[in-house]
Amino acid sequence: MRLKNKVAIVTGGGSGIGEATCLRFAQEGASVVVVDKNGSDANTVVSKIKAAAGEATGKDVDVTNREQVDQMIHDIVSKYGRIDILINNAGITADAKLEKMTEEQWNKVINVNLKGVFNCGQGVAKIMKQQGSGVLLNSSSVVGIYGNFGQTNYAASKWGVIGMTKTWAKELGRYNIRVNAVAPGFTLTPMVQKMPEKVLTMIREKSPLKKLAQPIDIANAFLFLASDEANFITGTVLSVDGGVVL
């Protein structure tokens, strides 16, 4: 088991890529803290993990709320004594073309996708520094690298995540903390499945593999970077996009 005796937090863990990551990490021996703004979704994932004889705890947390994040971290350390892995996966979209995007749409996406990552990363980094070890993994996107029509806010937030990742890698390496990002391509999450079929077909045709990612594909990338197999990897962005940008 690659994550035996590790304590891992996964934000946005109640569905999609987050859920797949929670389940995969539990299979590899981690004690998983499933964090989601929808507590019911988090508890459902916890139940799945426990049904498979894994260890998990659910947390109903809004990552944009610093008080909730700090309380979550305090509770986890009180229960488990440490935090080994943080997967900053929580994120949202609110799409519109530049001239039609509202200030509310902009603020909402930036608040969750950037402030939320900052809140959790800063809070957990303090614990990892005290331990002298840890892994911080941030969820970016292929959109954050190459942009995408109608996603000014989302692209900006995911490019910002890459900037934070590289900065944190430089700051925290001396404390034996590795920091990396995963940049998924279009993945068949509930959010993407709501897109028109003609759009999904177009995306598939752009990929040399002629398919979209499954959530488990991204979860496996997080697993590799969280494991000791990636012991000498920090400050990198791993694109998991089926070659869609070639």
From TrEMBL:
Belongs to the short-chain dehydrogenases/reductases (SDR) family. PROSITE patterns: ADH_SHORT. InterPro entries: KR_dom, NAD(P)-bd_dom_sf, Sc_DH/Rdtase_CS, SDR, SDR_fam. Residues 6-185 form the Ketoreductase domain. It comes from Marinisporobacter balticus. It holds the Pfam family adh_short_C2. It comes from the Bacteria. Signal peptide: none annotated. SUPFAM superfamilies: NAD(P)-binding Rossmann-fold domains. Keywords: Lipid metabolism, NADP, Oxidoreductase, Steroid metabolism. CDD domains: BKR_SDR_c. This is 3-oxoacyl-[acyl-carrier-protein] reductase. GO terms for biological process: monocarboxylic acid metabolic process; steroid metabolic process. One of its GO terms (molecular function) is oxidoreductase activity.
